[in-house]
Every structure is written in structure tokens, then in C-alpha cells.
Specification:
globular, mainly alpha, 160 residues
């Protein structure tokens, strides 16, 4: 059996997934051009939790739904690359809280700028109305599939 896997023949879930991947790849290329070439998409899974405020590795592991060992490994990697730093808690010096470094903050700002620029470019090329309709449709799909809460609480993970 031959499968026609050309883009027009893909179902909506794959088109949405691949479009998201392609847009993320483009943002990654732009970040690399800005000097943030060490960042990876999966780094954002950790960074999104630290953005909400300093937290311990224990709290990070809980929020991410992973073991402390897995969270510690991810944090150590981000520390080594200068994105995160551990600082003593003001309430208990035995507890270390995760903070974004200046480099980490700059990477978050650059990512936001590049995502907004890409959205604007797509609106210019395909029309703001079409891009808004695509956004509205995908937002409605997320709501229909009860993905609002995990997104709101930064608990989005790839399907198992």
C-alpha cells in the first residue's frame, strides 16, 4: 500500500504539529543568529516554570511531572550553559532557588521578539485575517480537547 504523505493530504493534527515544528525551527535559527545557538526547544520546558518565579528543584520536578533526578539533570545542563543559576532562598539558606541569568532573560526576550516577528511575517504574506482564523481554529481545538488547563499551568508535554 502506497501512502500519499504530501502536505495537502495530511490530517489536521499532523499539519498543526509540523507547522508548529517548522515555526519553532525558524525561531531557533533566528536565535542562533543572535548568539543564542546553545538553546534548544526542550530548554523552554524548564524555563517556562522559572519564568513564573524562583523555585526549588523539588518544586520544578513536581510541576514538570518528572523525578528530581531528571529535573536536576536538566537544571545542571542549563546552569552549565549560563541560562539558570541557583541562589539561596531568602527564607531558608539551605534551599537553593532557580533563577534565570541575564543570558537566560535575554534569550526569553529574543524568543518572544522572534515569535512575534514570525507571526507578523505570516500575517503579511497570507493575510492577517487568515492567520487570525488559523489561530482561532487551533485555539478552539485545544479547548475542545481540554488542553487549556495544562497550558495555563505550564504542564504541556508531548503525548505518551
Amino acid at each position: 500500500m502506497v501512502v500519499d504523505n504530501t502536505v495537502p493530504r495530511l490530517d489536521l493534527s499532523l499539519v498543526a504539529l509540523f507547522a508548529g515544528w517548522a515555526m519553532t525551527d525558524e525561531v531557533q535559527r533566528r536565535l542562533a543568529a543572535d548568539g543564542f545557538d546553545g538553546l534548544r526547544f526542550n530548554d523552554g520546558v524548564v524555563i517556562q516554570h522559572v519564568l513564573a518565579g524562583p523555585l526549588s528543584i523539588t518544586a520544578l520536578a513536581e510541576r514538570m511531572g518528572v523525578t528530581q533526578q531528571a529535573a536536576s539533570k536538566a537544571v545542571a545542563d542549563l546552569e552549565r550553559r549560563g541560562v539558570l543559576v541557583r541562589k539561596p532562598s531568602p527564607d531558608d539558606a539551605r534551599i537553593k532557588l532557580l533563577h534565570l541569568t541575564e543570558h537566560g532573560d535575554a534569550a526569553v526576550r529574543a524568543t518572544r521578539v522572534h515569535r512575534a516577528a514570525l507571526d507578523a511575517e505570516l500575517a503579511e504574506e497570507f493575510g492577517a485575517g487568515r492567520v487570525a482564523e488559523a489561530h482561532a481554529l487551533l485555539t478552539a481545538v485545544l479547548g475542545r480537547l481540554n488542553a487549556d488547563d495544562p497550558i495555563r499551568h505550564r504542564r504541556v508535554r508531548p503525548p505518551t
